[in-house]
Write a structure and sequence with these properties.
Helix content: 10-25%
Number of helices: 3
CATH topology of the largest domain: OB fold (Dihydrolipoamide Acetyltransferase, E2P)
Strand content: 35-45%
Structural class: alpha+beta
CATH architecture of the largest domain: Beta Barrel
Oligomer: single chain
Distance between the termini: 33 Å
Shape: elongated
CATH superfamily of the largest domain: Nucleic acid-binding proteins
Number of domains: 2
Mean pLDDT: 84
Radius of gyration: 21 Å
Length: 220
């Protein structure tokens, strides 16, 4: 069971009820086992939650009795609730990201420092054109040369489609709308909003937990 509180740009904080199955070796350290299991969910698409798990907060075990599974497995069941930060992009949603690839036939964008999105030349409005300069490649406007998209630019675009490929997302974006493009041009701001800075900190923490989880799996 999930209840949601929406945040900007496809972010949702959900209060989720989860069922976790732990090995008997964790019977004396249940919370540690719970955290290891939650860490294994980070930065992956979760079908039941319908989004990519970015972070979790306040895991709370329900009750003190834990059901041991019958039959051929010795694992035992633990029920819990937790607040889960999800990224759940959908077509038509406006998101922001940093340009990490400039080509004549597409623009590559990294959203929230994790998710790759591709903006095909067919989805870039005619006002913008590709130009190869001596030291860099850019997309710029025919009518307003202050609108320049280059490597490192923060870009606002509209999601055209999203495909889940296993535990990852394949995002296609669009710059067809006239109010999409470089954020410096749209808003005059040189830095992302403080909300995004806070989100990046949470994502970096999740990355570190994910690395520790991978290392733990290699060592066992």
């Amino acid at each position: 069971m999930v209840t949601a509180n929406e945040e900007p740009q496809g972010l949702n904080v959900v209060k989720a009820k989860l069922d976790i199955f732990l090995h008997p070796s964790r019977s004396g350290h249940i919370m540690a086992g719970v955290q290891e299991t939650l860490d294994s969910l980070l930065l992956r698409y979760n079908e039941s939650l319908q989004g990519v798990v970015l972070a979790y907060l306040d895991p709370n075990i329900l009750g003190r009795k834990h059901k041991i599974l019958s039959g051929l497995t010795p694992y035992f069941h633990v029920g819990l609730t937790a607040n889960i930060l999800l990224f759940s992009p959908t077509a038509g949603m406006r998101v922001e990201g940093k340009v990490n690839k400039i080509e004549k036939d597409y623009i590559g964008v990294l959203t929230m420092g994790i998710f790759n999105a591709a903006l095909s030349v067919m989805d870039i409005r005619d006002d913008l054109y590709f130009e190869e300069l001596p030291h860099e490649r850019i997309w710029t406007s025919k009518t307003d040369h202050q609108h320049v998209i280059k490597l490192g630019s923060m870009l606002s675009f509209v999601i055209k489609s999203v495909q889940e490929t296993g535990e990852f997302l394949d995002i296609s974006g669009s710059l067809c709308s006239p109010d999409t493009g470089c954020l410096d041009w749209i808003s005059g701001l040189n830095e992302p909003r403080h909300v995004l800075n806070d989100l990046e900190n949470r994502i970096e923490s999740s990355k570190e937990k994910r690395k520790k989880e991978k290392k733990r799996r290699r060592d066992t």
